[in-house]
Specification:
heterodimer, A: 347 residues, OB fold (Dihydrolipoamide Acetyltransferase, E2P), six-stranded mixed beta sheet, B: 10 helices, ABC transporter (chain B), ABC-type transporter activity (chain B)
């Protein structure tokens, strides 16, 4: 059963297109992520609550639309805003009790406190909590509302590991309950780790990330390149070229942290900075396989020398944590986990 | 749209708890109490003017300011959006907040009256007059709350209100020299004082009807102004 239907949603700003018309449907138990810029994200959120008109388009949640029956529509919809205000002087328990009364929540708060791991903090004032704990209070509030569709804006940005784990666990529980989840984020790693379907939304429209078509494309290029190789054998060298303002900069493989693919274009990350590469991901994998690099996801190659930790969020979602200052997280797909185990010699 | 008393009570309880821990707004309640204590201690037999100076100050500082501040704070802290997206309707949100302000006002005024030793000759009429006045100040506070975005702004817009309505009665003697100040005679605070003086002189309901009508007219005007501002704000968004 479909929960959310977005039809013909588009936004133009003066002469520029923020995003062209797109359709999106989210069914029960489905987690969908939209990867976009902040501007696009806030526009989409404003459209959900009617601050920005959808003009020719329509958003319906379980058949209810904002204009036909506002109250019924809003009851189906729970939004987690990144910048949400909390009643900081209330204790966690009082805060939950308040929203419980507003939403007519009948069950016990213990379950909510347990899911958000706030039992020990329940008598603490919200202003005395850490950033991550405040975020968990926000998750709890949405759990109390228990709408059909959950929208999360950057739910795991800057939170600690524990909170991220709690969040992923909550999404799994919501999924089992048959809720629909829409994740709006600017962090590809979190989109891939949490969601089943990842879309990218920008001026080129809504596109499914890591589609089959992309794979085919790269194999065609590969085939062409192999033909090239037969004609002229290039000298093998182990530097990776990148383009920086018309210049070509060569990097040593050990310098590289990881490589991310963005629409067929590979970006090489070195100390938190991204450098576009002219090579495809498959091509790079081929070159770097022998120096300790590993294709951990369809869109990612990681330098295994830099991996500090492998985190298991749930039985089939994993991330790699790098040994850098930001503790960058990189998605690790389920299939590749087995491969990595073999590589590391763990059974 | 259904009006649910349960949600009004939820908002009432939340704001009560929140306010009890809010030092900034909480301490303003002490101002009229301290004043009442000073007057009560200094003057053996305070005149009716002094009793009502304290009560009018309580109405403008506590009622108008608390109402204004708790509305402005929801905006400042970004919590209003969450409330608007919840099943609570705007009449319910404002209803819950007004209830908080109303109860705080009544408690403050009773405490002030005890401190200054005020015992009205006819408690019934005075209670009605003060209740109607409170409604006016709540409407005024709501109006200012809708206009101001932060608690800081709220504490600034309260100043002219405090001056006009709180200290208005002091300016009354000057009205003879400056005809423009005769407007003061029609302010709700002056009307309240006049009414109380009449009551002390032994007047009944019929005699003070005119004063009550004028205060009530202020309530109507403030309520209409508030709903106009509210409609306009809603359209802007």
């Amino acid at each position: 059963m479909t929960i959310l239907i977005m039809k013909n949603i588009e936004k133009h700003e003066k002469d520029t297109i923020l995003f062209p018309s797109f359709h999106l449907a989210i069914a029960k138990s489905e987690i969908t992520a939209i990867y976009s810029t902040l501007n696009v994200r806030s526009t989409v959120l404003d459209m959900f609550i009617g601050n920005i008109p959808t003009i020719n388009g329509e958003i319906t949640i379980n058949g209810e639309s904002l204009f036909k029956n506002k109250q019924a529509y809003l009851l189906q919809l729970g939004i987690y805003y990144f910048e949400e205000g909390l009643y900081e002087r209330l204790t966690v328990r009082d805060y939950f009790a308040f929203f419980g009364r507003l939403y007519g929540f009948q069950k016990s708060f213990d379950q909510i406190l347990q899911l958000t791991q706030l039992q020990e903090k329940k008598h603490k004032k919200i202003k005395d909590l850490t950033f991550s704990e405040k975020k968990r209070v926000q998750y709890g509030r949405l759990l109390i509302q228990s709408p059909s569709l959950f929208i999360f804006e950057e739910p795991d940005l800057n939170v600690d590991m524990e909170t991220k784990r709690i969040f992923i666990n909550i999404t799994k529980i919501l999924q089992e309950d048959g809720k629909g989840i829409l994740l709006l984020t600017g962090n590809m790693e979190s989109a891939i780790t949490i969601a089943g379907h990842v879309y990218r939304l920008d001026e080129d429209g809504l596109r499914l990330f890591e589609t089959e078509a992309e794979e085919q494309n790269t194999s065609i290029i590969e085939a062409e390149e192999r033909e090239d190789e037969k004609e002229s054998k290039p000298i093998r060298f182990n530097k990776i070229p990148t383009k920086v303002n018309e210049k070509i900069v060569l990097f040593d493989p050990p310098e590289i942290d990881y490589i991310e693919s963005n629409d067929g274009q590979a970006s090489i990350y070195i100390k938190g900075e991204a450098f576009p590469s002219s090579l495809t991901l498959t091509n790079l994998e081929e070159r770097l396989k022998h120096v300790g690099f590993f294709r951990c996801h369809r869109s990612y190659i990681v330098n295994l020398q830099k991996v500090r930790e492998v985190i298991t969020w749930t039985r089939n979602s994993y991330s790699l944590v790098l040994d850098d200052k930001e503790k960058t997280q990189i998605p690790l797909s389920k299939g590749k986990m087995a491969e990595l185990r073999d590589l590391l010699g763990i059974k | 749209m259904t009006f649910s008393a349960k949600r009004v009570m939820a908002i009432f309880q939340k704001d009560m708890k929140d306010l009890s821990k809010n030092m900034y707004v909480g301490t303003t309640i002490l101002t009229p109490l301290i004043l009442a204590m000073i007057y009560g201690g200094m003057i053996d037999n305070p005149t009716i003017e002094i009793h009502y100076f304290v009560i009018n100050l309580a109405l403008s500082i506590v009622t108008a300011f608390v109402q204004c501040a708790i509305i402005a704070e929801e905006k400042e802290k970004n919590t209003l959006r969450g409330l608007m997206l919840s099943p609570a309707t705007i009449p319910e949100i404002l209803g819950g907040k007004s209830l908080v302000t109303f109860i705080l006002t009544i408690i403050t005024i009773i405490l002030c009256a005890m401190l200054t030793g005020y015992e009205p000759a006819n408690l019934g009429i005075i209670a009605i007059a003060i209740t109607i006045s409170t409604l006016f100040y709540i409407a005024l506070g709501t109006l200012m709350g809708l206009l101001s975005r932060t608690v800081m702004e709220a504490s600034i817009v309260i100043l002219p209100v405090m001056f006009l309505f709180g200290f208005g009665t002091i300016l009354q003697p000057f009205a003879e020299d400056y005809p423009i100040l005769s407007v003061i005679d029609y302010l709700p605070s002056t009307q309240l004082l006049e009414l109380a003086t009449l009551v002390e002189a032994g007047s009944g309901f019929v005699d003070v009807g005119g004063n009550l009508a004028i205060i009530f007219a202020w309530v109507v005007v403030a309520t209409i102004a508030t709903s106009i501002v509210f409609k306009k704000r809603e359209m802007d968004e």
